[in-house]
Design goal:
This protein is mostly helical. Helix content is 49%, strand content 12%. The strands form two sheets. It has a three-stranded antiparallel beta sheet. A two-stranded antiparallel ribbon has the order 1-2. The protein starts with 12 loop residues before the first helix and ends with a helix.
Length: 187
């Protein structure tokens, strides 16, 4: 299946002022679309009840000044389209593909991922973001409750140990030799 361009649409300012939200549909309600062509001929198209909820949601999002795109779940998207959906950069999408977080296939030299896989990843990222925000909020509460901020100020910034090299195969010895050199310099 060929990838289609993801096109986001939004209401113009003029349409925003004139459009009204759909009333909440209940069982038995029918939704019809009235179309008037340039010649003035009018046609009425019935909207099936299963599609009425989608139309209602589409219009509600557009009235909230959100950009909207309608896509098929089994549609394939390229990394740049996936990045627009996920709200992250294209190189990060490619990294997620290489890691196995986002399944994909090659079409020639080009990567393609299923939209449902992209939406699954978006859901996972959303859950992870929510958990991180809750953790940050808990940490702020602990700092305020127990006064940990003053204790944290006294801690020095820890530096990672250097990797072993031919000159200094043991990182602990390297750290000791640095400390000794510093001690000798200031004594």
């Amino acid at each position: 299946m060929a990838s289609q361009i993801v096109h986001f649409a939004r209401l113009s300012d003029r349409d925003q002022k004139t459009a009204t939200p759909l009333p909440k549909l209940v069982a038995g309600d029918r939704l019809e679309l009235h179309v008037r062509d340039a010649g003035g001929k009018e046609r009425t198209l019935p909207i099936p009840p299963s599609a009425a909820a989608a139309v209602e949601a589409l219009l509600a999002h557009m009235l909230r000044e959100e950009r909207v795109a309608v896509l098929a779940e089994d549609q394939e998207v390229c990394p740049s389209e996936a990045s627009a959906i996920l709200g992250i950069s294209r190189p990060l999408v490619v990294l997620r593909m290489d890691r196995g977080d986002l399944p994909f296939r090659y079409v020639g030299k080009h990567r393609r991922a299923l939209l449902k896989d992209v939406l699954t990843l978006k859901s996972k990222l959303g859950k992870r973001q929510t958990a991180m925000e809750a953790l940050a909020e808990d940490t702020e509460d602990l700092i305020e409750t127990y006064g940990l901020s003053s204790a944290c100020r006294g801690l020095r910034r820890l530096r990672p140990l250097p990797l072993p090299s031919a000159k200094h195969p043991d990182p602990v010895r390297l750290r000791r030799s640095r400390r000794g050199a510093l001690d000798r310099r200031y004594t």
